[in-house]
Amino acid sequence: EAGVVQSPRYKIIEKKQPVAFWCNPISGHNTLYWYRQNLGQGPELLIRYENEEAVDDSQLPKDRFSAERLKGVDSTLKIQPAELGDSAVYLCASSADSRGYTFGSGTRLTVV
Amino acid sequence: ILNVEQSPQSLHVQEGDSTNFTCSFPSSNFYALHWYRWETAKSPEALFVMTLNGDEKKKGRISATLNTKEGYSYLYIKGSQPEDSATYLCAFLDSGYALNFGKGTSLLVTP
Predict the structure, then answer these.
(1) What pairing do the DSSP bridges indicate for beta strands A10-13 and A107-111?
(2) Under an 8 A CB cutoff, do B32 and A44 touch?
(3) What is the pLDDT of residues A26-46, one digit of tens each?
């Protein structure tokens, strides 16, 4: 079974540029999460989807971040415009229940 | 955002040493405690999901215990090997669905 697939693996952009990350969850997993891990910190939740509905986006900086999960499968996380402080690892995870979280390998974003 | 603390922040041991890490978490509204092993450039790998007070789980040389009343969990590695080098994350799940992570313990095992 394929795991959670994320792309790209690495991205370097200049500040003020837009960037997008893509996630393909495990088939049948209705819940999808985007986490951000800043250097020296643990991953922090940005947004949680149940199917195509964003049920928890309280930690998503809505002035520059947006996310979508069309048809309740793949998801895209966008930053526009990027700032230096957005440099981090962006992790996607999916689950069928509270026991079975599966993470992707993440996208490491560097904003210069 | 719930406060999950891990210690030590980093650890450097010799091959063959046994070691342990601590995770402390809120003792109220407990649902589950997850342990992950995360190597650089790879996906975080689930080690244990613990739900009951007194739980003890083992996977090869790695084991974990859980005390939900006092809000802590220990992860033990017996006879550390260089391939055990990674960041070990614990994550607390309350009655919601999102994991609240600690900052992790970075383990380096040298031959």
Answers:
(1) parallel
(2) no
(3) 998 999 999 999 999 999 999
